[in-house]
């Protein structure tokens, strides 16, 4: 039985709905006292292949709707969003970097996720390139004696067999738990061993209801800074 409620979000930087889910969840999660939150990097392509799912961008009508839908979410919630000209891109490198950061730099890990999401879905930079990752993350380590060297070390970690294995296991774990896309949330109530799966960035209200936590609604989310007090 779980002594505390928990929410695990499986994500991939290539997923625009993971971007929205991460941004919106972080606007409200700090008001959910007693809920443990974690973000697990996975390879979305690996998940899709494993379950024989097809990405939306392969179908023009679905892709057109996806872009329009994300633009509407951006307007309603106030989350800046620009669909990148280069889409999709390979995210194995940045996702392995984030896997290493989660293990070795936990206090900066979520800030790095946020920055790389912005690089791609706000600024349109190709995050598959090492130089883009380096430029994006170096300022986060400005207090380090050598910020550039620090980020370069994590880029090198992406080739480390242990990091590769952890990333592979995260992806396999997501599939085993029922994931078929991103973002996938696994939610557990206090006192329960059951994990409830929720798919998509639009499931936060349902997750809040299941956990008995506040949800401010999209109108109020637009007026909230990340981690601020919701106006209920």
UniProtKB/TrEMBL annotation:
Q: Which InterPro entries match?
A: DSBA-like_thioredoxin_dom (IPR001853), GST_Kappa/NadH (IPR051924), HCCAis_GSTk (IPR014440), Thioredoxin-like_sf (IPR036249)
**Which residues of this protein are catalytic?**
15
Enumerate the GO terms in the molecular function aspect: glutathione peroxidase activity; glutathione transferase activity
Domain (DSBA-like thioredoxin) spans 7-211
The EC designation for this entry is: 2.5.1.18
Its GO biological process terms? glutathione metabolic process
UniProt KW DNA-binding keyword: no
Q: Which UniProt keywords apply?
A: Transferase
Origin: domain of life = Eukaryota
User: Which Gene Ontology terms of cellular component type are present?
Assistant: mitochondrion; peroxisome
Read off the SUPFAM superfamilies from this record. Answer: Thioredoxin-like
- The UniProt record lists the keyword Magnesium: no
This enzyme catalyses: RX + glutathione = an S-substituted glutathione + a halide anion + H(+)
- A Pfam family this chain is assigned to: DSBA
Question: Which family, according to the similarity comment?
Answer: Belongs to the GST superfamily. Kappa family.
Q: What is the recorded name of this protein?
A: Glutathione S-transferase kappa
From which organism does this entry originate?
Entomortierella parvispora
User: What taxonomic ancestry is recorded?
Assistant: Eukaryota, Fungi, Fungi incertae sedis, Mucoromycota, Mortierellomycotina
């Amino acid at each position: 039985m779980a002594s505390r409620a928990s929410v695990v979000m499986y994500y991939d930087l290539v997923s625009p709905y993971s971007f929205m889910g991460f941004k919106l969840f972080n606007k409200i999660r700090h008001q959910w006292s007693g809920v443990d939150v974690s973000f697990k990097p996975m390879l979305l392509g690996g998940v899709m292949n494993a379950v024989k799912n097809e990405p939306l961008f392969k179908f023009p009508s679905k892709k057109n709707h996806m872009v329009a839908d994300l633009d509407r979410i951006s307007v309603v919630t106030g989350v800046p969003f620009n669909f990148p000209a280069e889409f999709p891109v390979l995210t194995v490198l940045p996702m392995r970097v984030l896997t290493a950061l989660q293990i070795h730099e936990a206090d900066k890990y979520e800030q790095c996720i946020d920055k790389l999401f912005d690089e791609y879905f706000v600024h349109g930079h190709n995050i598959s390139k090492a130089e883009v990752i380096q430029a994006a993350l170096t300022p986060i380590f400005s207090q380090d004696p050598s910020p550039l060297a620090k980020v370069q070390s994590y880029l090198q970690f992406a080739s480390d067999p242990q990091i590769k294995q952890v990333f592979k296991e995260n992806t396999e774990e997501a599939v085993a738990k029922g994931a078929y896309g991103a973002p996938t949330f696994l939610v557990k109530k206090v006192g329960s061993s059951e994990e409830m799966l929720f798919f998509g960035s639009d499931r936060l209200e349902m997750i809040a209801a299941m956990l008995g936590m506040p949800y401010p609604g999209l109108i109020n989310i637009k007026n909230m800074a990340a981690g601020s007090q919701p106006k209920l």
